[in-house]
Write a structure and sequence with these properties.
By secondary structure, the protein is of the alpha+beta class. The protein contains 12 helices and 14 strands. It is globular, with a radius of gyration of 20 Å.
Length: 408
């Protein structure tokens, strides 16, 4: 999803891949491939071609005033057979094309194509926590020890620390080197991919990186614990809760924790460049990533979410204020709030989250004062993080004719 999430795994998957994500996925500023120097782009097509040449599947949509202003699919969501994978499938799961017996061929993405969302999923996990707070079932000020008493210094960690990445917990999605969660993953698989207690148990072996609340350190562990807390408090799996309280009410029929319900046909497959040629990536286990990065969705469904967090509706104003209140540790690219980075671009308020996961990079960029949302989904794990192309796309979006508003 975003940086620390992949740092160890990538060495086992594709040796040439660097740690994944945009400006917040790992601790520090964006490190993914930056746009290639070219002449100033004159169109959206130029921007996409400059940054994703060679047939990478890109689905890009711009919404203005709540209505679609631009949508186009580029490249291929499926490059067809034969597939070439490198290294082993360390996840031990069947790949989606085989799992769903998908028709294969050279297919372009479109507005209905579902992509792995990677860390954009964190927006929804944070939203689920805030809905439970609205219900009076928990508080963001609750200590983590209320839910996981065995985690070191859990009495010092609040749910708000988890939401803001200020907990000090180590990264759980590492295998083979410190902190090693290989045994936890093996137990998770043996238990049928529904029991997250092995992660909490493994965390008991690792000291905190710092005193909670004193530093910012992007960690997927924070959000896998939040997803587990949602399930515990609601009595429903995270995906079920999200469907009942967010996806269903908003009409997000193409969004799922994990893959869509069969039959599945319009699903992007993940690819990467291994230094020689384009290869299939072993797509990561979306159940293990429930909370920090396990959703699949489409550009249109993401826009429904962006609209829903712009004004009270399923969320109260108090929840929205909480959602977008930045933590105390600004970074060069923005300050983390509850599932979002808060920043500015050219003087315009800019609220966003990007992500990277095996085979995909993603971006949900919103400009609330301008009522503009830019959503970019890409099946190129080694390419430019879409974070870097938003500064080129936003000025174009500003000049687009105002689309007729869908609002009443």
């Amino acid at each position: 999803m975003r940086f620390p999430f992949a740092a160890i795994i990538l060495a086992s998957c594709i040796s040439v891949l660097s740690a994944c994500g945009g400006s917040g996925a790992i601790v520090g500023p964006p490190v993914m491939a930056t746009p290639k120097p070219t002449l100033p782009p004159t169109s959206i097509d130029d921007i996409v071609q400059n940054n994703y040449p060679g047939g990478w599947g890109v689905e890009l949509a711009i919404y203005k005033n709540g209505a679609l202003a631009y949508e186009k699919g580029y490249g291929l969501r499926d490059r067809g057979l034969p597939d070439t994978f490198v290294n082993q499938n360390i996840w031990g799961i069947e790949q989606p094309d085989k799992l769903f017996n998908m028709p294969r061929g050279q297919f372009k993405p479109d507005a209905a194509t579902a992509f792995d969302l990677a860390s954009v999923s964190k927006e929804f996990t944070a939203g689920a926590i805030l809905l439970l707070q609205q219900d009076g079932k928990l508080s963001v000020n609750d200590p983590l020890s209320k839910y996981f008493p065995g985690i070191p210094d859990a009495t010092q960690i609040t749910l708000l620390d988890l939401l803001n990445h200020t907990s000090g917990l180590v990264e759980y999605n590492n295998f083979g080197s410190y902190p090693d969660f290989s045994a936890a993953y093996a137990q998770f698989m043996a238990d049928g991919q529904t029991n997250y207690q092995p992660i909490a148990t493994a965390l008991q072996s690792f000291p905190l990186l710092f005193t909670p609340g004193t530093q910012y350190n992007y960690s997927n562990t924070d959000y896998v614990l939040l997803g587990t807390i949602v399930a515990h408090v609601s009595g429903e799996p995270l995906g079920t809760f999200l469907r009942q309280r967010i996806f269903g009410p908003l009409g997000m029929t193409q969004t799922n924790q994990g893959y869509p319900t069969p039959p599945v046909t319009d699903l992007a497959l993940g690819y990467a460049f291994d230094g020689v040629s384009v290869v299939r990536t072993w797509q990561w286990n979306l159940q293990w990533l429930a909370g920090p990065g396990g959703l699949t969705s489409t550009v249109g469904d993401i826009e429904k979410w962006d609209e829903a967090v712009r004004a009270p509706g399923i969320f109260t104003q108090a929840s929205l204020t909480q959602m977008f209140t930045p933590c105390a540790f600004p970074q060069s690219y923005g300050t983390y709030a509850d599932g979002w980075f808060i920043s500015t671009l050219g003087g315009h308020p800019y609220v966003w989250h990007d992500g990277a996961i095996g085979g995909f990079v993603t971006m949900n960029a919103t400009f609330p004062a301008d009522d503009i949302d830019i959503i970019v989904l890409v099946n190129d794990f080694t390419g430019t993080d879409p974070y870097f192309i938003i500064p080129q796309l936003f000025p174009i979006a500003l000049t687009m004719n105002n689309a007729p508003s869908r609002r009443h």
